[in-house]
Amino acid sequence: MAATSPPLPSSFQNAKKILSNFTSFKPFSILLNDNKYSHFRCQIKSLENKPSNWSVEFLSGTEPLRLIQNSPSSMSMAAASASDSAVKTSKKVCLFYCAETKVLAERIAAESDAIEPRSINWRTFEDGFPNLFIPNAHGIRGQNVAFLASFSSPAVIFEQLSVIYALPKLFISSFTLVLPFFPTGTFERMEDEGDVATAFTLARILSNIPTSRGGPTSLVTFDIHALQERFYFGDNILPCFESGIPLFKNRLQQLPDSDNITIAFPDDGAWKRFHKQLQHFPTVYNI
Question: 101-123: per-residue pLDDT in tens?
């Protein structure tokens, strides 16, 4: 204890002498606030021929220290309560997926016990329009929900958007849309009058996803064509741009001839977008 601390009360000194008779007693400290003794509890780790379920209570400088034996039942209840609290605070994610991403979703769920794959009935009417159903919709209330999408063709975008718009309105805690590939990203600007920037159109559609209890939807996509496309999205969605280039680099470095690799870019735009992440390799591109 620091030299500036006030002297210990005589009751503490007497109790320390009593407790020192226990062969396995370990020293313990006092929490001081503004140089005043405060209420504290400290656990005696072990006593000779006694279970380690004793604690010492110090209330004030005028009252003696008290040696208290905790009942096993109270200790068990405290341990069970702590265990239940840990389970409740752990984040569980209900992962929905489309038909094209089913295998990938199952592989992702196999990597973590916190991810639970959830299926959707992807059906169609006789005229070809979607007839969709989310099983056990009440069971995802208050849960963190994610959807693994695949906008591989215009034909599947409408049915997936229908589900994406429906999930946040099921009283869920948060919603994350994982769109591995942003399909319209290559047409993100107008070069001639009359060009339609479809990347902006898709961004506007996704920006209208309803908010969940936790706030705006998080959109995760990989290697979008141009980083400035983040400004195409509205305030109702939070775009998160990730990249697979680090995994690509690790794979290249594992090759036996990794010192003899050249990266070829299809055009100047691709070189500007990714060359800084691949600067350890020689690069060429078609002007």
Answer: 999 999 999 999 999 999 999 99
Q: Which tokens belong to 100?
A: 């094209």
Cα 189 from chain centre: 33
pLDDT digits (tens, 9 = 90+) for 143-154: 999 999 999 999
For residues 218 and 2, give the distance between their C-alpha atoms in angstroms, rounded to a whole number: 51
Cα–Cα dist 208/36, whole Å: 58
Phi, psi for 124 (deg, rounded to 5)? -135, 150
Domains of the chain (ranges, CATH numbers) = 10-81 (no CATH), 90-242 (3.40.50.2020), 252-287 (no CATH)
pLDDT of 184 higher than 90? no
Residue 36 pLDDT exceeds 70: no
Cα gap 173→112, rounded to integer Å: 20
Q: Give me the mean pLDDT over the 13-20 stretch.
A: 52
Give Cα separations from 159 to 4, 22, 101, 121, 248 (angstroms): 72, 72, 14, 11, 32
Q: What is the pLDDT of residue 240?
A: 92
DSSP lists the bridge partners of residue 56 as 42, 67
Phi-psi region of 223 (alpha: psi -120 to 50; beta: other; left: phi over 0): left
